[in-house]
């Protein structure tokens, strides 16, 4: 396995892990925002709403960080692919110029 192939596999695995984690975070965020807790008078508690908003903000920041990491992995993957694309034609040209040594 070549270095760029290994890097590609590593980046794909990281991307899958981030995507799975983000799905869980988005589900948690949806749950936090959809809960309706009412106090004894039938009105939502301001403290509860603020706590839920703070939790939702924390989850959203986590998702943002994961998206940043995913974009970083995609950049690394593109760099690896570009390097491979640049070196393969040069290697193929060298093979055509040299006679096969078997």
TrEMBL record:
Residues 83-92 have a biased composition (Low complexity). Residues 93-102 have a biased composition (Basic and acidic residues). Keywords: Coiled coil. Residues 46-80 form a coiled coil. It comes from the Eukaryota. Residues 1-21, 83-102 are annotated as: Disordered. This is Uncharacterized protein.
